[in-house]
Amino acid sequence: MEIGSPLHRHLLMKGILRTALKTASLGVIIGLMLIFPRIIRENTFSTGLSYAGQSIILISFIYSLVIAIKKYRKTIGSLDT
Question: Each residue of 33-55: pLDDT tens digit?
Fold first, then answer.
């Protein structure tokens, strides 16, 4: 396999997407664990945990997107030049 070939680019892209997916899924798992107590019993504390869980999910999606874009620019972008 030659550096910069379509197969090489495909494998790089697959690795970047896998990293982004793992990051986002970890945030979703942690966020859902924080949201779960509100489903069982709703009070002020569980509502606060729910808001924290929703924030963690949103932040993890944004973070995984930023990581994927940076990795793409660094690896694939350097192959274009």
Answer: 999 999 999 899 999 999 999 99
